[in-house]
Design brief:
Elements (H helix, E strand, L loop, with lengths): L6 H10 L3 E5 L5 H11 L2 E4 L6 H7 L2 E5 L5 H16 L4 E4 L7 H11 L5 E5 H7 L19 H11 L2 E5 L2 E5 L4 E5 L11 H15 L4 H20 L5 H14 L2 H7 L1 E4 L1
Parallel strand pairs: 1-2, 1-3, 3-4, 4-5, 5-6
Antiparallel strand pairs: 6-7, 7-8, 8-9
Helix pairs in contact: 1-9, 1-11, 2-8, 2-10, 3-4, 6-7, 8-9, 9-10
Bound molecules: adenosine-5'-diphosphate (ADP), 4-methyl-5-hydroxyethylthiazole phosphate and magnesium ion (MG).
């Protein structure tokens, strides 16, 4: 019997019962992240107010928190939502955007890590710095190769008992014990702002339909981006047309295509 947690099977399960994904994400990413979730088959809701974020997290299938355009009020909403997700046993995903850049961001991420994210998704510079290493990140952009972040990812996974996904030319995912690398995507992807943020939301969508296997759920989300990104790049002429083709590819691929084209190998 085919593996029921293959990326293709999980994509089919997601489309059969579209999960409600509570996304607390930055102003830059809100629109494309919502469109990425809709194109893939999930149901996004961008809700960040401190007055309702906790209540909303309790009714969603999963929560994602991205600190890209952080403020003190948003921080209160983030903590309320992460507390509610934890208390209601809902998976939640942390995207520590450029946390190395300011004390404000570092304090925010330290505070959110105390609320036990299920998955941490970041680029190589963010993951290296989160594990205490010296990274070369510039603003929100990575300047480090994924290979140099793999040990940091393993350390973070063990320390925080979370799945850690490091994305880049070849993605790396670990739960501290198991680890895989995922090839694919396109060099145009880092040239389209907020695709990483959008991927964090898609990780949430897959975790919502597979809460007991966040490692496999994370792999599925990254495999969708890798296969859809590779397909879109064959039709694109630059980052602008890529971003349009990418949404079409997300909507077009099905489970069989995903399992046939995903390149996931044991690390
Ligand atoms: N050079 C590359 N080649 C192929 N895919 C890439 C490349 N850089 C990033 N990606 C893909 O782009 C998506 C966003 O990841 P990334 O750019 O690392 O995140 P962030 O936007 O948070 O920095 C991921 O699916 C990743 O695999
Ligand atoms: C440009 C920018 N500034 C604050 S958040 C953001 C988007 C970052 O998106 P990603 O992490 O996916 O590159
Ligand atoms: Mg990012």
């Amino acid at each position: 019997m085919q593996d029921q947690t293959s990326p293709g099977k999980l994509l089919e399960a997601l489309r059969a019962q579209p999960p409600l994904v509570h996304c607390i994400t930055n102003f830059v990413a809100m629109n494309i992240a919502a469109n990425v979730l809709l194109a893939t088959g999930a149901s996004p809701a961008m809700v960040h107010a401190k007055e309702e974020a906790g209540e909303f997290a309790a009714i969603a299938g999963a929560l994602t928190i991205n600190i890209g355009t952080l403020s003190a009020g948003w921080m209160r909403g983030m903590r309320a939502a992460a507390t509610a997700a934890r208390d209601n046993h809902k998976p939640w995903v942390l995207d520590p955007v450029a946390h190395y850049a300011t004390a404000f961001r570092r304090e925010a991420v330290a505070s959110l890590l105390e609320l036990q994210p299920t998955v941490i998704r970041g680029n190589a510079s963010e993951i290296i710095a989160l594990a205490g290493g010296a990274s070369r990140g510039q603003g929100v952009d990575s300047r480090d190769p994924v290979e140099q972040a793999e040990a940091s990812a393993r350390l973070l996974a063990e320390t925080h008992r979370a799945v850690v996904a490091v994305t880049g030319a070849t993605d790396f995912v670990t739960d501290g014990t198991r680890a895989v690398r995922i090839d694919g995507g396109s060099p145009w992807m880092p040239q389209v702002t907020a695709l990483g943020c959008s991927l964090t939301c898609l990780v949430g969508a897959f975790a919502a339909i597979n809460p007991d296997a966040p490692f496999e759920a994370t792999i599925a989300a990254l495999a969708v981006f890798a296969v859809a990104g590779e397909a879109a790049a064959t039709e694109a002429e630059g980052p602008g047309s890529f971003s349009v083709r990418f949404l079409d590819s997300l909507a077009r691929i099905d489970g069989a295509f995903l399992d046939r084209h995903a390149r996931v190998r044991q690390a």
